[in-house]
Design brief:
By secondary structure, this protein is an alpha/beta fold. The chain folds into three domains: 167 residues, Globins (Globin-like), CATH 1.10.490.10; 113 residues; 152 residues, Alpha-Beta Plaits. It has 14 helices and eight strands. A hairpin with a 2-residue loop joins strand 3 and strand 4. Helix 1 packs antiparallel against helix 6, helix 7 packs antiparallel against helix 8 and helix 7 packs antiparallel against helix 10. The radius of gyration is 28 Å and the shape is globular.
Length: 454
């Protein structure tokens, strides 16, 4: 911070007031066009599509860029500019969270420097004044981008370390329990399909394997737990074969009343693919280490530390596959009174009970975190607004209806407030947390024991 201040003070000492005034005239006149051109350059790069939408650029980003240019190049004194430059650390952190490529921003800034240079050359500045003005503009851009980039790299490195820590954490997942749970989910799907086929129930509304509890777990959690092991690719191929080839053939066979022999052949083929899935699944679990690390000690939920890794991946999945997800923030109401009246042991029992209710009422593809203190976070995969609200409302009701037994034998009840936010395509994972958190505080301020949608 002090180094930046010294560099900016030196810059201001090297440029005459009239030159600075001429730069201000150009920027105030051209800032809207410069902001427009900056985003034309950005949007022309195919890599920008996941991060920039035309509507967002037009409504929010262009006006912000015009203000940014004015604050960078038209500051009245070095103190105001120093404060503005310090804010670029936050910009770098946001870009890192959203994983916006640095080269995109650099390309846009290079265009801005060249365009401003052309405007300066067309001004009334004399040769020495023109050189001074161009150098001043270039140096200001370079300082802002340097501060932004340093912050970006630091935040990105922290994210990489968290990703690596998460991989270590999931290697300590309770593999034995998860193995049985997913095999059970797969067997349940298989039994239902074969049962409905055997008694000739209509198969038009059959739940495809990809959309089953097992399929959702495989899509959202297995690739985190098992990274990119070769079995995952083979598993997905088997599911693809069942969902896109075999089940449609089975539905068609039922519609045209195909012979029993032909239907049996189809069912045996599906059974063969399921056996292959079971074998691959078992092989993957056999590779994993069974050790417990990284969980919240009290509730055994995911640790907040791993939330960025999971949210970034869900955002990427949402971007590629087009489904939405939701974040639910939950806060136990009047928790301080629980601690005051029944001690911290009573408070711990309440938190453990809430954690159990949450884990028992979500799917295996969803994620449950202890966010901090009496606050929890749910990440609901592949849901729409109505589904997310329904899950939150059921959870809110369950908590209010459940009696918590204390060590003294006394039972108490608590309530919770919940805020729900549906993904909106924004690449910065902090945004959806902030929206859910704002909805949570609205729920608390409007009477508690309720659900509010962001």
């Amino acid at each position: 911070m002090m180094e930046d201040k010294n560099r900016i003070d030196a810059l201001y000492g090297q440029i005459e007031h009239e030159v600075r005034k001429q730069i201000r005239v150009i920027i105030e006149r051209e800032k809207v066009a410069l902001a427009e051109g900056f985003y034309v350059v950005m949007l022309s790069d195919p890599d920008s599509k996941p991060f920039l939408e035309a509507a967002t650029v037009q409504q929010r980003l262009k006006p912000s860029m015009a203000v940014w240019l004015e604050q960078l190049l038209c500051s009245e004194d070095s103190a105001a500019l120093t404060q503005f430059i310090a804010m670029q650390r936050h910009v770098g952190e946001v870009h890192a969270r959203a994983q916006i490529p640095v080269n995109l921003v650099l390309r846009g800034m290079q265009w801005l420097k060249q365009t401003i240079n052309q405007h300066l050359q067309q001004s009334s500045l004399q040769r020495d004044e023109l050189i001074s003005a161009v150098l001043h503009v270039y140096q200001l851009f370079d300082i802002a981008f340097e501060v932004m980039s340093v912050s970006y790299v630091c935040s990105h490195d922290m994210g990489v370390r968290a990703d690596e820590a998460f991989k270590l954490f999931v290697s300590g997942y309770n593999m034995a329990a998860e193995r049985e749970r997913q095999l059970g989910a797969l067997l349940e799907w298989e039994s239902r399909l074969f049962r409905e086929s055997a008694i000739e129930l209509p198969l038009r509304e059959v739940v495809y394997l990809r959309a089953s509890s097992f399929g959702l777990w495989l899509n959202h959690k297995a690739s985190l737990v098992f990274d990119e092991q070769r079995e995952l690719s083979a598993l997905n191929q088997s599911i693809e074969c069942i969902d896109t080839t075999l089940i449609p053939q089975l539905v068609a066979a039922q519609a045209v009343e195909m012979s029993n022999d032909s239907r049996r052949i189809l069912l045996r083929t599906i059974q063969h693919e399921i056996e292959q899935i079971k074998f691959l699944l078992g092989d993957m679990f056999d590779r994993a280490n069974d050790m417990e690390v990284g969980r919240d000690v009290l509730t055994q939920l995911f640790n907040r530390r791993y939330l960025p890794s999971i949210l970034k991946r869900e955002i990427e999945l949402s971007r590629r596959k087009g489904f939405s997800f939701a974040v639910v923030m939950l806060d136990v109401d009047h928790f301080k009174k629980v601690n005051d009246n029944y001690g911290h042991d009573g408070g711990d029992l309440v938190l453990q009970q809430v954690a159990r209710l949450m884990t028992n009422r979500v799917r295996s593809s969803d994620f449950v975190f202890r966010y901090g203190g009496e606050e929890f976070l749910l990440l609901l995969t592949e849901v729409d607004e109505g589904q997310a609200r329904k899950v939150a409302e059921k959870l809110c009701t369950s908590i209010a209806e459940t009696r918590v037994m204390l060590l003294t034998g006394k039972t108490i009840t608590v309530t919770a407030s919940l805020g729900v936010a549906l993904s909106d395509g924004h690449p910065d994972y902090e945004r959806i947390i902030q929206r859910a958190d704002a909805a949570l505080y609205e729920a608390k301020n409007s009477g508690r024991n309720r659900v509010v949608l962001a």
